[in-house]
Please model this.
Amino acid sequence: MDYRERITFNPNQCAGRPCLRGLRIRVKDVIEMLAAGVSETEILEDFPYLQPDDIRAGLEYAAREVDHPVLVAADPSPMGFHT
Model:
């Protein structure tokens, strides 16, 4: 499955945030529910227009979005001490 077939972006819907299949449910909403311990089964029962592949696509999209280096500015003070 290619998550790009299920993740949509529309500037006139949900402020352009990534949604699932053009529906008004954001990828963020599904990820937050999963993080809060809501099961996939519960999500699908509460949102019957979603499909299991939508949830997997949201997870794959989120995983790819966080897969980048994080750059931290060097501490300009000598020996890392702050005055």
